[in-house]
Write a structure and sequence with these properties.
It is a single chain. This protein is an alpha/beta fold. It folds into 2 domains: 255 residues, Aldolase class I (TIM Barrel), CATH 3.20.20; 61 residues, no CATH class. It has 13 helices and 14 strands. α2 packs parallel to α3. Bound molecules: S-adenosylmethionine (SAM) and iron/sulfur cluster (SF4). S-adenosylmethionine binds next to β4 and β5.
């Protein structure tokens, strides 16, 4: 019987909306009622979700990974921790003994009582959206928080010896004009010894408010490679395109996505995947239904290659080539040779990209498309 070992839950509220963000979220009009309605919505969704899981004979087992993302789930606070406790008890869900249970936290968007309650519930990993440690850029992005909020949160994490990750953004508007120094910002952050960092290059829409002040590709590439080098010199492994960790502190939850494993999801806009059914589903915002997409064999194959190449485990060619014709194997080998000569690989077999390769991942996938290899 297939099992559900991982769950993602999407909390769709933020104290304030950042000007670049495209995730599903809104500002609560009245926290008490909105949060109560949200808990009710989750309960209803879960009924529909359980029916679908039953149809495919899935069974819940104690979760090995659990992730609450958003939005700003730390805003859910004590009410949220209690709602979760009830929810888990009512459905007889449990966190496994060594479960990695992550909560996204926004600087300035949490209280001690709230985080204490989430920790009492079992959340044991915290992902903090710092984005920049320069006030000018926080203002440009319309972030709610200031530097005091960041230090206050990092001090709380250190005080309680918590396992935490940091979200940090590159390619920000006005980077050239204000001469952004990402290494100086990261030096400050590393003093608090995060076990994990996620590095995101800002993506924008064509009508973005600061579209005329974006740094060019050259600037962004230099930032990305500079940061990758700096983090590696400080003992972090570049284990996925956007992620770095101290050895052994990779995000177990995200590795399940990158290994194309089954991860269930609840909450407006949340996306889940049932590997055994090759089924991806996405919750429609505030409807008790989801869109379904069943992947074909060749889509699964493409995903596998794409996901393997995104990660430090890489693509095991010994195993993969057993499924290919001699002609395709030769074409792959030529391409691997080309990538190596251009300095994009840290290993040929398995094929593992280095930071330079991760940076141009999309154009490497284009190479594969053009040669009809995916
Ligand atoms: C959806 S947010 C939730 C975390 C939290 N609310 C926050 O903002 O810190 C997750 C991460 O996605 C990244 N992100 C959001 N919008 C982005 C964009 N347009 N381009 C690149 N990264 C983005 C940010 O680094 C953010 O920390
Ligand atoms: S706080 Fe996070 S989720 Fe909310 S608007 Fe800003 S980037 Fe988006």
């Amino acid at each position: 019987m297939p099992t559900i070992k991982s769950l993602y839950l999407h909390f769709p509220f933020c104290a304030h909306l950042c000007n670049y963000c495209d995730f599903f979220k809104s500002v609560p009009q009245n926290k008490d009622t909105d949060f109560q309605n949200f808990a009710h919505y989750l309960e209803q969704c879960n009924q529909v979700h359980s029916q679908m899981l039953q149809k495919y004979s899935y069974e819940y087992v104690p979760f090995e990974t659990f992730y609450i993302g958003g939005g700003t789930p730390s805003l859910w606070s004590t009410t949220g921790a209690l709602a979760l406790k009830d929810f888990f008890e009512n459905h007889n869900w449990k966190l496994a003994k060594d479960c990695e249970a992550t909560l996204e936290v926004n600087p300035g968007g949490w209280t001690r009582a709230g985080l204490d309650a989430f920790r009492a519930f079992g959340m044991n990993r915290f992902s903090l959206g710092i984005q920049s440690l320069n006030e000018k850029f926080l203002k440009v992005l319309d972030r709610y928080h200031d530097l005091n909020h960041v230090h206050e949160t990092l001090n709380y994490f250190n005080e309680h010896e918590l396992n935490f990750s940091v979200d940090f953004m590159l390619g920000l508007p006005f980077s050239r004009e204000y001469k952004r120094d990402v290494i100086a910002e990261l030096e400050e952050i590393l003093k608090y010894q995060p076990k994990h960092l996620s590095l995101y290059i800002l993506t924008i829409k064509s009508n973005y408010i600061h579209k005329d002040h974006m740094p060019d590709d050259e600037w962004i590439e230099a930032e990305y490679l500079k940061v990758a080098d700096y983090l590696e010199k400080n003992g972090y492994v570049h284990y996925e395109v956007s992620n770095f960790s101290k050895p052994g502190f990779e995000s177990k939850h995200n590795l399940r996505y990158w290994d194309a494993e089954t991860v269930a999801a609840l909450g407006p806009s949340a996306t889940g995947f049932l590997k055994e059914q090759k089924l991806r589903y996405k919750w429609k915002p505030y409807k008790y239904e989801f869109e379904e997409e069943v992947l074909t064999e060749s889509e699964m194959e493409f995903e596998k290659i794409y996901l393997n190449l995104r990660c430090f485990k890489g693509l095991d060619t010994d195993q993969y080539f057993t499924t290919l014709t001699a002609e395709k194997i030769q074409a792959w080998q030529n391409l691997i040779q080309k990538w190596e000569t251009m300095g994009y690989l840290q290993s040929r077999n398995p094929v593992i990209l280095n930071s330079k390769g991760f940076l141009i991942m999309d154009s490497l996938m284009d190479d594969l498309f053009k040669k009809d290899l995916v």
